[in-house]
Amino acid sequence: MELFEVISIGVIASVLFLLIKDKQPTIAFLVVLFTVIYFFLFIMQYVQEILRLIAYLGERANINSVYIKTILQIIGISYITEIGANIVRDAGLKSVAVKIEMVGKVFILILAIPIFQSLIETIINIFPIT
Amino acid sequence: MTLDTSVLFQIAGIGIIVAMIHTILKQMGKEEYAQFVSLIGFIIVLLFVLDSISDLFQQIRSVFFLQG
After folding, report:
1. Least CB-CB distance to A20: which of B2, B12, B49?
2. How far is CA A8 from the centre of its chain?
3. Source organism's superkingdom (chain A) (predicted)?
């Protein structure tokens, strides 16, 4: 089972981090960074299958593919914002991490604008404002 | 699996070796060389990590339709 692989890599990385933390803090930080990236790359292949299932279901339900695509893009932005913010937070720069999260939120809002517009247009078409 | 764990051990090994060389050069009184060695070790490790970062970003882009 691959879960045990992930857990043992995490334990090994923390031991190596403790080993070189005192002498070379920058390289110790890169060990942490590499471990985080490894885990995300590991999880990404499973996420891909889940997203393929979601896209398939949306296709079968005759949902406009733009909506599904936008939702997946929002999920992707939140993933990558989380990665970046956590890495920067590990390095001790909390304020930069908060700004990265803020930029991610603004980009999510920008992606949601077309859906919001079409929602408003639908509502106006249903209840025409005289 | 696009990556393997041996890179993790390579990074840790480079860190330990650089720390050792740093200590030896410091004992010999060559402070500036010691700084230089730790900088170069850092750059080498950074190259490894940058490779995997670009892998990750490419994969996220292709999985979540984020091109452009």
Report:
1. B12
2. 24
3. Bacteria
- Contact between chains at B8 and A38 (C-beta distance less than 8 A): yes
Who contacts B2 (Cβ-Cβ below 8 Å, separation ≥6)? A41, B55, B59
Q: Which domain holds residue B57?
A: 5-62
Q: Are A34 and B49 in contact (CB under 8 A)?
A: yes
φ and ψ of A73, to 5 deg:
-65, -40
Residue of A7, A27, A49, A83 to mutate, testing the B interface (most B Cβ within 10 Å of its Cβ): A27
Asked if residue B68 belongs to a domain, the reply is no
Phi, psi dihedral angles at A50 (to 5 degrees):
-65, -40
Which residues in chain B have their CB less than 8 angstroms from residue A27's CB? 11, 14-15, 18, 41-42, 45
**A71-117 pLDDT tens trace:** 888 988 998 899 899 989 988 899 999 999 999 999 999 988 988 89
Q: How many Å apart are CA A24 and CA A20, to the nearest integer? A: 6
d(CA B54, CA A72): 20
Our count of domains for chain B comes to 1
- Residue among B16, B60, B64 whose CB faces A20 most closely: B16
User: How far is residue A38's CA from residue B8's CA, in Å, rounded to a whole number?
Assistant: 9
Q: Quick check: is B67 in a domain?
A: no
pTM: 0.81
Shortest Cα distance from A127 to chain B (angstroms)?
A: 35
